[in-house]
Amino acid sequence: MSSETVTSPPSTTPIYKRALLKLSGEALMGSQTYGIDPQTIAQIADEVIDVHSLGVEIAMVIGGGNIFRGIAASSRGMDRAHADYMGMLATVINALALQDALEHVGVLTRVATAIEMRAVAEPFIRRRAVRHLEKGRVVVFAAGTGNPYFTTDTAAALRAMEMKADVILKGTKVDGIYTADPMLHPDATKYTTISYLSVLGEGLKVMDATAISLCMDNKLPIVVFNLRTDGNLRRVVMGEPVGTTVQA
User: Fold this and answer.
1) Which class is domain 18-247?
2) N or C: which end of the chain has fewer CB within 10 A?
3) What global pTM score does this model have?
C-alpha cells in the first residue's frame, strides 16, 4: 500500500454565502489626501464583481472619513450630533460613487440609507434589502445607523446581523491585525486568529468596542485583510488563509 499523503485540492466553492464588506472612507482615497480616487474605486468594484460572480451575496457599508469626519469636527468644538450627521451625509456621497462604479462593471446595485433621501437612494427597510441580496443585487448601506454617536463600524455590525450575513469582511490597508501598529513598530507580529475578548482587552483598533461587542454577542466572525492586494477579497471568501479572523 502506498504511504503517500493525498492532499485535497483547494475548495472551488466559497465558504460564505452572504458577506458584508466594511470599507472606510479613506479606502476610496487611494494615494490622494482627500476625496475619491477613480482608479481606486474601480479596483474595489472589480474585486466585488469577481466575488459576486462566484454567487456570493454582497452587502457593503462605507465610511465617510475621506470627506468629513464627525468625531474630528466635534473635537474642534462643533456640536457632536451636527458633526455626526454631516459625516453620515459624506457616507451617502461615497455610497453613490460605489454604486456608479459597480454598475459600470455590470452589477445591479442599490443604495439604502438610514436617513431618508428618496431622490438619490431608497430608505433602509430590512426585508427589502434582504430581497435585493436574494435577487443578486449588491446593497450599499449608507448614513450609518442614522443616529449620532455611532460609528460606521457599529453600523456594519448591525446591518450584518440584520441581513443574517455569515461574516464581516473588513478591508484595510494592512494585511491583518498586529500586536501593535506595523507602520510604527516593524517588530509587531501578526495574529492569524484572535478572540473578541482579546481585541477588547488589548485595545486593538480593529473596529470600535460597540461593534466588537455586537459581533461577540451574536458570534459573527470578522476577517480583517488588505483590500489593496488584487484578488484578496476572492481569497478570503474561498477560505484561503488571508488576514486575521476575529472569532469566539
Assistant:
1) alpha beta
2) N
3) 0.92
